[in-house]
Amino acid sequence: MTNSKKFALVTGAGRRFGLALAHALLDEGYQVLAHYNTSKDGIDELEQRGAIGLQANLANLNDVHQLIQAVQQHCQKLHLLVNNASCFFDNQRVDESDANLVAVLNVHTAAPYLLINKLQQQLTNAEGSVVNITDIYVDSPSTDYIAYCAAKAGLASLTQAFAKKLAPAVRVNAIQPGPILFLPEHDSQHRQKVLAETPLNLEGGLEPMIAAVRFLRDNPFITGESIKVDGGRALTI
């Protein structure tokens, strides 16, 4: 075990925002603990740069406990925890199987609860920071993603509760992303509709999210806060 670097745990680090954030943290000199479930290609990239890949299915709480033990073995101080992993299941997907419902609730609420709670000693040792990735729909839930929105709302509540519990040693904040990066399955009609409903009328990209993580991490007088990075989309939903 080494404590010569700052340690960061990013869940869902194998793709999209989690991957970009992990690369950015490596650029800053962090020892990145890069969690993934099945998205291994991005993890291979990160491991080539010195990150430590940690596999766990966050829908399975036994896996979550094993992930916690692995983190504890790698570091005594955890400077940054970013709860980013997500399973974006709509009502149809959730209704197909109770396992899908459990996955939505565990990935977005139960797993972050366990990670923050069980790693609080490592976070306290580092006077660390937690950033939870929620969603603009926690304040105005979509009827097409009922379980997902409820689970993200649970994560928003955890943010405030842990901010109170862990202060002053650990700060806990959240980011509510909007149309940051469209999914491959989003057709041009869907993209045009979303952008038309976004006051800034653009797809945000990943850098604004990375900048928001840095802001919440580096500002020593913010805790229990939730910042929208959405181009103003929350104003219209």
Automatic annotation (TrEMBL):
UniProt cross-references to Gene3D superfamilies, sorted A to Z: NAD(P)-binding Rossmann-like Domain
Work out whether the entry's keyword set contains Cell inner membrane.
Answer: no
TM region(s), chain numbering: none
What keyword terms does UniProt attach to this protein?
A: Oxidoreductase
Q: Listed GO molecular functions?
A: oxidoreductase activity
Q: Does the keyword Oxidoreductase apply?
A: yes
InterPro entries, alphabetically? Answer: NAD(P)-bd_dom_sf, Sc_DH/Rdtase_CS, SDR_fam
Q: Which family does it belong to?
A: Belongs to the short-chain dehydrogenases/reductases (SDR) family.
PANTHER family, A to Z: OXIDOREDUCTASE, SHORT-CHAIN DEHYDROGENASE/REDUCTASE FAMILY (AFU_ORTHOLOGUE AFUA_5G02870) (PTHR43639), SHORT-CHAIN DEHYDROGENASE_REDUCTASE FAMILY PROTEIN (PTHR43639:SF1)
Q: What is this protein called?
A: Short-chain dehydrogenase
Q: Provide the organism lineage as a comma list.
A: Bacteria, Pseudomonadati, Pseudomonadota, Gammaproteobacteria, Alteromonadales
